[in-house]
Amino acid sequence: MSSWLTKKSALALIIVAFLALTAQSCNFLSRSKTDGGVLITANEGQDWTFRNAIDAKNSLDRTVTTTAAFNPKNTQEIFLGSDGSGLFVTRDGGGTWQNILSRGGTVRRILIDADQSAIYVALSRGIYKSTDDGSNFTEIYFDQTGIIADLAFDPRNHNTIYALIGNGAVLRTDNAGASWQLSADTKTQAVALLVDPMEPTTQYIATNGQGLLVSHDGGAQFASANTLAQFQGGNIVNAIVADSKTPHLVWVTTDYGLFVTRDSGQTFSEVPTVLGGNTVPLHAFAIDVENSSVIYFSAENRIYRSIDKGTTWKVISIPTARPVQDIVTTPADHQVLLVTLGSAKGQGAPQIIKPFGQNNAE
Question: Reading across the β-sheet that carries 138-142, which strands appear in turn?
Fold first, then answer.
């Protein structure tokens, strides 16, 4: 009798162990689900589709994507930056992707001058340029002191380009990258650069810890916009986006919340959101290309949409636990949005790539 019980107990233990291993295996599959790469919606966020195919065997499913740019003359062509895998392009609206600049480090900005068939890429410490639709790239600048945090065209002349270095220096070229000179040195941890599209002599630098800097003389001198500093987390600026149809109007996302200036940075007002202030950092920001009353911002893995310039908000859920890195609109169809996705490391909180800092040894 005792022998039978022993065998029965052993069998039960085997079954329990099998079930535990099966559950553990299921949990592992769930945790390792591929939910990175690129998401695209064709109906303003009602439905989303992962567009990650490279070929029959490879995809962007596990790739951390950082930023993207539509070719304004052919919006089926999209250039996509990544963290660690270089630059990709699709010429069929996201059907398939091709790696065209294989480099380590992080792509932080892609500029397209469609009139001159030129593409500029900020990747790690270098600036790369293509004049043949991405078939070949040449490194036109390498910085010894820090990462290339951002690039921006002068809207009046795309041969004039500004490059923001992570240590706060601003470089300028007036000959499409053939030569560069120092324009300003703010000595800050710089995140992003904005040249106002309607008033190019007004420029903004977003920083990590020093708030927003504003220049009204074409970038020769920058001063602090102290309004943001009174809010806890307001001095950590994540995105700055200008309204291209309304003069002097610029939106700013920070670790505290959302702000707007209507007087070219002289004063800023807090924009109430459904999240409240100082609850979760706000990251990406985008404006509808046809109707600038429609705006978007991201917080972690959610997108928030307003159709009345921030008076009311609607939450847009996306099918991933990864944080939103960037929200990109296209000039061809205001219903189309592309979203790049950050990394979810281990079982901890999702990580957003910060484009600033002197500790980024790339």
Answer: 107-113, 118-123, 126-130, 138-142
pLDDT at residue 144 above 50?
Answer: yes
In tens, the pLDDT along 71-110 reads 999 999 999 999 999 999 999 999 999 999 999 999 999 9
Question: How far is the C-alpha of 232 from the C-alpha of 308, rounded, in Å?
Answer: 26
Residue 297 in any domain: the answer is yes
3-state secondary structure of 180: coil
Q: Are 188 and 220 members of one domain?
A: yes
| b/e sequence 27-65, b meaning 16+ C-beta within 10 Å | eeeeeeeebbbbbbbeebbeebebbbbbeeeebbeebbb
Same domain assignment for residues 157 and 215 = yes
CA distance 226 to 230: 8
274 plus 296 within the same structural domain: yes
Q: For residue 55, give Cα distances in angstroms to 47, 93, 128.
A: 24, 15, 26
Range of the domain at 5: 1-32
Burial class of 240 by CB neighbour count within 10 A (0 to 12, 13 to 18, 19+): buried
Residue type, 102: S
The answer to whether the beta carbons of residues 40 and 34 sit under 8 Å apart is no
**What value does the mean pLDDT take over residues 48-63?**
95
Residues 27 and 162 in one domain: no
Q: For 326-344, what is each residue's pLDDT tens digit?
A: 999 998 899 999 999 998 7
**pLDDT digit string, tens, across residues 149-192:** 999 999 999 999 999 999 999 999 999 999 999 999 999 999 99
The CA distance from 9 to 339, in Å, is 54
